[in-house]
Design goal:
With about 80 residues, the chain is an alpha+beta fold. The protein has one domain. Helix content is about 60%, strand content about 15%. It has two helices and two strands. It has helices at about 1-30, 40-60; strands at about 65, 75-80. A two-stranded antiparallel ribbon has the order 1-2. Helix 1 packs antiparallel against helix 2. The longest helix is centred in the N-terminal third of the chain and has 30 residues, at about 1-30.
């Protein structure tokens, strides 16, 4: 039961992250350019950025990097791989 709640919380956090990213791009697209864009174009740019961010987050959600210290070689870095959520 607790695992199901944790999955729901993770989904809500990810959805919030994608919406926030879209809103940031939307605001930047509205106020930064010298030439005003149409509202439809601004919404399309914001939606595209949110979708792109979601796809990139699903493809490579996180990479865990650990330093392996063996035989006094602290500079050796191991990439454990992609962590699936």
């Amino acid at each position: 039961m607790q695992n199901i709640n944790q999955n729901n919380i993770n989904k809500i956090q990810k959805l919030t992250k994608y919406i926030l990213m879209g809103l940031i791009v939307l605001v930047a697209t509205k106020y930064i350019p010298d030439n005003q864009l149409k509202t439809k174009e601004i919404i399309m740019i914001g939606a595209t950025s949110s979708i792109s961010f979601a796809i990139l987050d699903m493809i490579s959600p996180s990479i865990k990097i650990n330093r392996e210290i063996k035989n006094e070689q602290p500079s050796k870095i191991l990439v454990e791989g992609f962590m699936n959520n």
